[in-house]
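Revision sheet: structure tokens.
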Amino acid sequence: MSYSLPTEIISAQNLTKRFGDFTAVDTISFTVRQGECFGLLGPNGAGKTSLARMAFGLSPRTEGHLTVFGQDISEHSREIKARLGVVAQEDNLDPELTVLENLLVYASYYRLPRSIARERAFEILDFMDLRSKANAVVDELSGGMKRRLTIGRALINRPELLILDEPTTGLDPYARHMVWQRLRQLKESGTTMLLTTHYLEEASHLCDRLIIINQGKILEQGVPEDLIDKHVGQYALELGVSPDMQNKLLHWSSEWLKSFQQIGDDLVLYSDNGPAMADNLNQRIAGEHLPVSYQRLRPTNLEDVFLKLTGETLHGVRGGFEKSYEDR
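Predicted:
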């Protein structure tokens, strides 16, 4: 009889994690489907790492239900971990061993025969573009190489589910994009992934679906493009204009306006028809000689969604009062 994975690789229902009186994860529910990359997006301290640690059995849940591969993680931890790959946020490579030795030592934890372990290790070195560094001591590697090795090490048991906790934190843009490329290849090969990140571009590049988390609670969930369409539309028009003039701009743009954000002397207007809104405003601004210090029309992104939902950016910069134009 052929073996098939359940459609839902992870199922979390009302998952809660407390540390004393502090609630890190507050009644969160989500599912991760077979073959997708599911994201946990939020600022540092939002509860993402606590969720990830519960998912791979490192941290017990306080309340709620959690199954991985259809099994309760608290009752079948050993069987589940044998089918997982985990990339922790912190660097936990052995710095005194070579790149190849790190892979072989990790393979021994899964009791892989040495011949199979070496075969898989060299496959991983090729996949991660690290074969030329096989005999280099880990301490000699760049940050990007260390991160690729950490991800590669998590593949030694050919996991059905890969859990990645902030996999590109601290990397330069080039190294980050190299990691993204490898993760996309893994997803295309059918590997299911649970990814925590506070990088919006990373979530947009990799995630099929995601939940946006803040202070341990889910603010929204869905497909990234759908969330952008729902909350802010396709365009953001940023303007530098004094607060006493902003209501006039809001009135002028009402025909196209989906929502807006006021942040001191900055006004952000969201619309599905940004070019038409910008053209109309520019004509009116010029006609009344309204002082505008800068103007920028750009595509919207997940940062705009987070800003709309919380009034602050993912990096903790607080915005002004926000609401849909229809609520004015």
